[in-house]
Known about the structure:
Layout: E1 9-18, E2 21-28, E3 45-51, E4 65-71, E5 82-87, H1 98-102, E6 110-118, E7 134-140, H2 145-157, E8 166-172, H3 181-191, E9 194-199, E10 209-210, H4 222-228, E11 241-247, H5 249-258, H6 269-274, E12 285-289, H7 301-315
Parallel strand pairs: 7-8, 7-11, 8-9, 9-10, 11-12
Antiparallel strand pairs: 1-2, 1-6, 2-5, 3-4, 3-6
Flavin-adenine dinucleotide binds next to strand 4, strand 5 and helix 1.
Amino acid sequence: MSKLLEYNATLVAREDLEPTLSVFRLRPDSIERHESGPWFEPGQYVTIGMNRAVVEGVEDPRPLSVRRPMSISSPPEDRDEFEFYIRRVGEPESDLPLTHLMWPIAVGDRMYCRAVPTGHFTVEHTVGLEDRRLKLCVAAGTGLAPFVSIARSRVRRDPKARLDDLAIVHGASHATGLGYRAELEELARTNGLRYIPAVSRPTADWTGWRGRAESICEVARREEAEDALGLSRGELRPDRVAVLICGLNGTIANTVTGLLDRGFVPENRKLRRVFEIEDERPSTVFWEQYDNTPVIDVKDAELVAGLRRTLHTALGK
Ligand SMILES: Cc1cc2nc3c(=O)[nH]c(=O)nc-3n(C[C@H](O)[C@H](O)[C@H](O)COP(=O)(O)OP(=O)(O)OC[C@H]3O[C@@H](n4cnc5c(N)ncnc54)[C@H](O)[C@@H]3O)c2cc1C
């Protein structure tokens, strides 16, 4: 049975983009700061939480509180607040979904935040800070958050920073679900960010990329994708591009499998093992997963054998 959480943060801003999609800004009461340097790395997350209402005399078997990890979309240069990009889940798995408790809250309301940023889905801990390849960031829905933090931080540190090495492909069902679109379009204009908004259920007037975010890595759309990304034909390959993915298992699985024919190696111990990748070969596809469903069922021998064959052919093995 979970305990009541002691609230230690205030909601200072909220923007609703769709009925079930919002940007929340949270100000923790106190933050452990480093005197110099960033207080978190863009791409990291914190844990936030809420208590449910307790009605005296009414038996309720549910836990008293719930905590969930949330990626930070603000840059570390915002010293006092965290911003989050959150979807209210339609079909929760738990008895006490955090997003359902959060939906009625308004500016000034209190909640819990463990203000200790965590996680390795950062440029430093994936491709490395010195990597000069194009970072292809594939995001479905709220999976955009870490990439917004990464792009924002670079321009906050240097407004003239070039972002030509960053491509963000953001997928949503409808254009209204393309959070941060105006800001990312502006970064494309002013700083060279390669921004590709993708809509899977477009209206007739949508002129951008059609399909889910991961369709940018579909074999059948390779040339169209390379054009959209500003790459030459054949250039979507691991010596020119490293791939970062964020979201639910479907987006990750489709991106990972779509890129095997070009020799992209997933950064995942189990997958590297079943794909028989030698230790010296560096990974070129990294991800942050928001749910628990395995990205690829490694017990499915036939599936794994087919994927391994594709990857080995690409690697000339
Ligand atoms: C490292 C990390 C960072 C995360 N960052 C974010 C974030 O920035 N924004 C965010 O909205 N969620 C994020 N999540 C997911 C978040 O932690 C919760 O799982 C989610 O908010 C649902 O929690 P819940 O208690 O409301 O629902 P639960 O009862 O826990 O329901 C879980 C169900 O919700 C689905 N689900 C989980 N996340 C999403 C989502 N983002 N969109 C649609 N369906 C989802 C899962 O598939 C699962 O079936 C992150 C998860 C991890 C592990």
